[in-house]
Write a structure and sequence with these properties.
Blueprint (H helix, E strand, L loop, with lengths): L9 E3 L5 E3 L3 H17 L9 E10 L6 E11 L2 E6 L5 H8 L2 E5 L3 E7 L2 H14 L3 H5 L9 H5 L6 E7 L1
Antiparallel strand pairs: 1-2, 3-4, 3-6, 4-5, 5-8, 6-7, 7-8
């Protein structure tokens, strides 16, 4: 059985191992390093039924400042999605306040729209099947072997945004 979520004080190190009791400056530095690595190379292609890493740029809901978050962008049936096991993540709350996002390194401007269940469930399933990082899988209340009905039961906590071209 998977743990429902990682603790707010758990994250990954460079090897993908869980690190506990990381403070906010450490998390900021780790994310900044990931952003730098993603932007330094060519954009990964979006495999159908899988994901590619992108820097997702959002606008801070309180500050109006541009935020950069390294995330996996999922592709299912030629549509792109962002998936998070926790609707309260800062980037998800920023999207809820302002749906305009940019995917870098491509500079691909998109509008993030909450995906309806018939799109959200396959996007979550694809993300979980493609995910190879144990800490990321543990963050979800469902696993890669769970069926659509089980995944659908958790749509109240898992947020899925379809990324429509602008």
């Amino acid at each position: 059985m998977l743990r429902p979520y990682l603790s707010v004080n758990e994250t990954l190190d460079e090897r993908g191992s869980i690190v506990r009791d990381m403070n906010a400056p450490d998390l900021v530095a780790m994310n900044a390093g990931m952003v730098d690595r993603i932007l330094a190379g060519p954009a990964q292609p979006y495999p159908d039924g899988g994901y590619a890493l992108r820097v997702v740029r959002t606008t801070g809901r309180r500050t109006g400042t541009q935020r950069a978050t390294p995330l996996g962008v999922v592709r299912v049936d030629d549509l792109l999605y962002l998936v998070t096991p926790d609707r309260s993540r800062a980037w998800a709350r920023n999207i809820d306040a302002d749906a305009a996002v940019v995917l870098d390194p491509d500079g691909d401007a998109r509008t993030a729209v909450p995906a309806p269940p018939e799109q959200a469930v396959p996007a979550i399933a694809a993300y979980l099947r493609a995910m190879q990082v144990p800490w990321a899988l543990k963050a979800f209340p469902v696993g890669p072997d769970d069926g659509p009905e089980t995944i659908a039961e958790h749509l109240d906590t898992i947020a899925v945004y379809r990324l429509d071209p602008r």
